[in-house]
Amino acid sequence: MSDAMLRLVNVDKYYGPLDHGVAAVKNINLEVEKGEIIALLGSSGCGKTSTLRMVAGFEAVSRGKVFLSGREVQNLPPVKRNVAMAFEGYSLYPTVTVRDNIAFALKAARLPESEVTKRVAEVSEMLEITSILDRFPSSISGGQQQRASLARALIRDADLHLLDEPMGQLEPQLRTLLRGRIKYYIKERGLTAILVTHDQTEANALADRIAVMEGGVLQQYASPEEIKERPANLFTGTFVGEPPMNVFPASVTAAGGKLHIDLRGDTRGDLRAGLDLIYAESDFAQPVRERMLGKRDVVIGVRPYAVHRAAQGAAAQVVANQWLGDQSHIAASFAGKSIVLVEHDRAVLSEGETIAVEIRPNDLHVFDAETGMAMSHGQELA
Amino acid sequence: MLTTSPIERILRGLAITLVCLFFMFPIVWIFLMSFQTNETILRIPPSVVFAPTLDNYQALITGKLETAAGMLEINFMRNLGNSLFLSATSVAIGLLLGVPAAYAFARLKFKGSEDIAFTLLSFRFAPPLLVLLPLTIYFQQLGLANTYGGLIWVYQLIVLPLILWIVRGYFEDIPADIEYAYRIAGHDFWSTFRRIALPLAGPGIAAAGLLSFIFAWNNFVFALVLASADKQPVTVGALAFVTASGIQYGQVAAGIVLSIAPTFALALYAQRYLVEGLSLGAVKG
Ligand SMILES: Nc1ncnc2c1ncn2[C@@H]1O[C@H](COP(=O)(O)OP(=O)(O)O)[C@@H](O)[C@H]1O
Ligand SMILES: [Mg+2]
C-alpha cells in the first residue's frame, strides 16, 4: 500500500439509484501524494464537484473506496475526515463577520488566541481581504466572499485542502497575482490540495499534476507538460492547449519509401478535396510507422504553434489573421477543414492569400479514430 | 421610493381607512361595550354616549357576577390563567418536538419522510369534532380527561403541524453547504444544528411559535369537551356569561377584551417577525 494522502479506488457516483441514476463520476482512480497540488480540470458538469464532495463526505460514494492518509473513509462523516474545503458557492456563515468565518475552525480546535490572530492576519493579507475582515458576508462582493471562503479553507491544518473553483469570481489581474501567492502559501506549509477548475491556465500555473475529466471519466492524470506533449487521447489533446490542437481524420499508406498521410476532407462524397501529406518513411521511427500503418483510420493532431509557414509545403488559404499583441493567430482552410497557426511575430497576410504550411513529423500526434486513444507522439509510441 | 400622485395617495388612504374600519369596528365596539352596563348596551336607539363604568372588569377580576337573579360565582381569572398556561406550555413542547423534527424532515431525506410530514399536516385538515368523540372516550379510560397534561397533548394537534411545516420550509432555505462548511471544520451534526441551523432559522421559529400560540389560545372545541371548569381556557369560560337570567353583554365584552389582549399585544410586538418569518419561509430564495 502506498502512503498517498488521498487514494480513490474505482469510485462511482450516481445521483439516484445505483446504475440507473445520473452517473456523475465513473470508475475514477486517483492518487494524490502528500505535499502535492493537483488540479481537477474539465468542462462544466463533468463531475469535478461531485468528486470533491465525495472526498469531503457530503455525498455518499456509490461504489468504490476512498482512502485518506491510509484510512478508509468513505463511510465516515465529514467531521472525522480532517479535510478543509472552499465551496463553489462560498457558503460563508451569514451571522458572523468575515474574520470569525475565517477563524471559526481554529477557535473550535482551541488554538491560542494569539496564534489565531496571527494566522488570520497572514492569510487575509495574502488574499487581500484585510480591509473587510470586520464586515458581514452579505455586505461584501462576490469576489470578496470567494476569497473569504478560500481563506477559511487555507487557514486550517487539514490533511487535504479541497478548493472548488476558488478563483472563478476574481478579475484577471487579481487572479494572476493570487495564483502565485496561493501556490507559495500551500507549498511553504507543505499542504496537500486539490484544485477544481475549468481554466487550464490556472491548472497549469498551480498544479503539479492535472487530472483531466470529461463525462465523469478521468481522461488523463499527469504533469502539465506531459499532458501538453503526450495527450492520452483525442479529448485531452483538443481540450488542453490554447488555441486547441488541429485535428484531421486521415488514413496512412506506404509506397515507394514514402509514407502518405491522406487527410480526408471534412465532407463525405468529397467535394472539397482532402490533402496528401507525404513524408519519407525514414522520417518516422520504425515502431511508430508500423503502428500507424496497422490502423486503417487514424486522426492526426498538430498543435497550432507546430504548424509552420514554409517556402514549400501543403497549400492553405488564409481565412483570418489576428494579432493579439504578442502572437498572431492565423486561421486557414486546409485539407477541406480549417487549420490554425500561431506565430510569435506579427504576420503580414491578408484574407484569401495562399500560404504553404509545413508540419514536421516530430510534431504529429496520431490517435486511433475508433477509440480516440493516442497511438504516437512524434517519434514515440504513446 | 416610487413617487405617487396626490390622487393616488388620497385614494389609497381612503381604502386603508375603509379596511381598518371594517376590521376594527367590532373590536372597538366591544371595547366600548365593556365599559357599559347591560341597560346602556341594550337601549334603543344605540348610542356611543354613555357614562363609563369599570363594574364589568371588577366583576371579572373579583369573580363575583351580579345578575338580576342574584350573585353568581365565576372563574374568569382562573380561565385566563389556564389559557396562558395551556398555550404557552403547548407551544414550548411543540417547539421542543417540532423544531428538531422539522430539521430532520428538511435535511434527512429518508424513505417515506414526505408521507410522514404530510400525514402530520393532514391533522390540520380534519375537523376537530371528528376526533372528539373517540378522543373523549380514550381520555376517560386513560385518566387523561380533565387534566392539563391531556389538554396539552391534544393541543399538539394544533401547534405541532404548524410549527413543523413553517420551520421546515425555513430550514430548507438555508443552503446545505453552509452547514457542511461547519461540519467539515470539525463539528458534528448536532452542534451544526444548534450553532448554524437554529440561529439562521430563528425568525421562522419565532413566527411559528407566535402563530401556534395564537391558534392554541383561540382553540375552543377541544377544551370545551375535554376540560371541566377549573381547567378551562377563556374561550370556553366565556360561556359562563350566558346565564339563566340573560346574557351579560357588558361582562362578555370585558371578557373578550381581556382574552384578546395578550394575543393582540403579542401580535403587535412581533408583527415584524411574523411577516418576515412567514414570507421568508414560504418564498424560496
Ligand atoms: N445533487 C445532484 N443531483 C442530481 N444530479 C446532480 C447533482 N449534483 C450534480 N449532478 C449532476 O452530476 C453531474 C456532475 O456535476 P458536478 O460534479 O457538479 O460537475 P462539475 O463540478 O464538474 O461542474 C452533472 O451532470 C450534474 O447535473
Ligand atoms: Mg462544479
Automatic annotation (TrEMBL), chain A:
Family label: Belongs to the ABC transporter superfamily.
Keyword ATP-binding among record annotations: yes
GO molecular function: ATP binding
Pfam families, sorted: ABC_tran, TOBE_2
Name of the protein: ABC transporter ATP-binding protein
Keyword rRNA processing: no
Keyword terms of this UniProt record: ATP-binding, Cell membrane, Membrane, Nucleotide-binding, Transport
Ranges for domain ABC transporter: 6-240
Alphabetized InterPro entries for the sequence: AAA+_ATPase, ABC_transporter-like_ATP-bd, ABC_transporter-like_CS, ABC_transpr_FbpC, ABC_transpr_MalK/UgpC-like, Mo/tungstate-bd_C_term_dom, NA-bd_OB-fold, P-loop_NTPase
Coiled coil start-end: none
CDD domains: ABC_Carb_Solutes_like (cd03259)
TrEMBL record, chain B:
InterPro entries: BP-dep_ABC_trans_perm (IPR050901), MetI-like (IPR000515), MetI-like_sf (IPR035906)
CDD domains, sorted: TM_PBP2
Gene3D superfamilies reported in the protein's UniProt record: MetI-like
SUPFAM superfamilies named in the record: MetI-like
Matches recorded under PROSITE patterns: ABC_TM1
Subcellular location: Cell membrane
Annotated keywords: Cell membrane, Membrane, Transmembrane, Transmembrane helix, Transport
Transmembrane spans: 12-32, 84-106, 118-139, 151-171, 204-229, 249-270
Keyword hit for Glycoprotein: no
Protein's membrane topology: Multi-pass membrane protein
Pfam families documented for this protein: BPD_transp_1
Domain ABC transmembrane type-1 as annotated: residue spans: 80-270
Principal subcellular localization: membrane
Family per record: Belongs to the binding-protein-dependent transport system permease family.
Name recorded for this polypeptide: Carbohydrate ABC transporter permease
